Amino acid sequence: MGARFHGVTFKTSSPECDSVFGVQSGDTCFSVSQQFNLTSEEFNGINPNIDCLKIFVGQWLCVAGTA
């Protein structure tokens, strides 16, 4: 199913997460993405609702999946 805009249909989908990581003290989105060999685009694609300025210890981040 997709969204329709001016006669064009766009694919709309939700990211799917295959593996998660619990944030530890000192972690940042950048350090986690490096640890799991993800580009910023990949990390953000599988974590669309994460505010990287407000991650907290114990928060689950997706580290493998599809956007």
Automatic annotation (TrEMBL):
* Signal peptide (UniProt feature, chain positions): none
Report domain LysM positions. 19-63
Q: Which GO terms describe its molecular function?
A: chitin binding
The record, for InterPro entries, names:
LysM, LysM1-like, LysM_dom_sf
**Repressor found in the keyword field:** no
Q: Which UniProt keywords apply?
A: Chitin-binding, Virulence
Q: Does the keyword Plastid apply?
A: no
Q: What is one Pfam family matched by this protein?
A: LysM
CDD domains, alphabetized: LysM (cd00118)
Q: What is this protein called?
A: LysM domain-containing protein
Q: State the organism of origin.
A: Dioscorea zingiberensis
